Amino acid sequence: MDVKKDYEWLFERAEVAMIIIDKNGCYLDHNEAYRFMMGYTEKDDLVKFHPEDVSPKYQMDGMLSSEKVAYNNAKAFRDGCYEFPWLHQRPDGRQFMSQVRLEKINFSQQECLLVSIHDITGQERIKRMVREKNQNDSGKEQRARSHLQECQRRSYCCGRE
């Protein structure tokens, strides 16, 4: 039984997008699900990548992606694990929201981070639709109340009360 080959097979075929990065943020390995998620086809396309290479210049909070990568990685190495939302960018420029989990592991006899990434674009879209519906419903209620109050005011003014 070859444990290394079993690991490689499981890692490569996992449905969750995963990468392994070293303390400098350099990619040591990544799986097929990650390549698919990011819009790449060949493993060699991502050999010398860093996380900020698949991210827009700025994250949603206005912070530079490069600075936020350094902060998040340092936190994960210090605390053992860290989870956060992240805005990714594909080579064609399309962006998507993800939930990223960093876990400190030993890989190739060095401390590294196992990075698991889940595309949450659909979840975010649903949340936004619910918020918009609630805002629309609230707006409709407010307009109906205002209309009712105006009708009551007019009725009062005309002595129909």
Question: Characteristics of this structure?
Answer:
single chain; 161 residues; Beta-Lactamase; 4 helices
What's the arrangement of secondary structure elements?
Layout: H1 3-13, E1 17-21, E2 27-30, H2 32-38, H3 65-79, E3 81-89, E4 95-107, E5 110-119, H4 121-157
Antiparallel strand pairs: 1-2, 1-5, 3-4, 4-5
Outline of the structure:
The protein is an alpha+beta fold.
Can you tell me the CATH superfamily?
A: PAS domain
Structural class: alpha+beta
The low-confidence runs, each spanning 5 or more residues with pLDDT under 50, are none
Biggest sheet strand line-up: 2-1-5-4-3
- Helix content range: 40-55%
The end-to-end span amounts to: 90 Å
Q: Helices and strands, in N-to-C order?
A: HEEHHEEEH
Biggest sheet statistics: 5 strands, antiparallel
What does this structure look like?
With 161 residues, the chain is of the alpha+beta class. The chain has a single domain (3-119), classed as 2-Layer Sandwich (Beta-Lactamase), CATH 3.30.450.20. Helices cover 43% and strands 25% of the residues. A hairpin with a 2-residue loop joins strand 4 and strand 5. It is elongated, with a radius of gyration of 25 Å. The model has no long low-confidence stretch (mean pLDDT 85).
